[in-house]
Amino acid sequence: MITDPHELWRAASAMAARKHRNQLRKDARTPYFSHLARVAQNITAVFGCDDPQVIAAAYLHDTIEDTTTDYEDIADDFGPIVADCVAALTKNMAMPEPAREDEYHERLRRGPWQARLVKLGDVLDNMSDLDTYPPADRPSHARKTIERARQAVALLNPGDLEREPFQRGVRAVNDAIARWTSII
Question: Among this protein's residues, is 162 annotated catalytic?
Answer without folding.
Answer: no
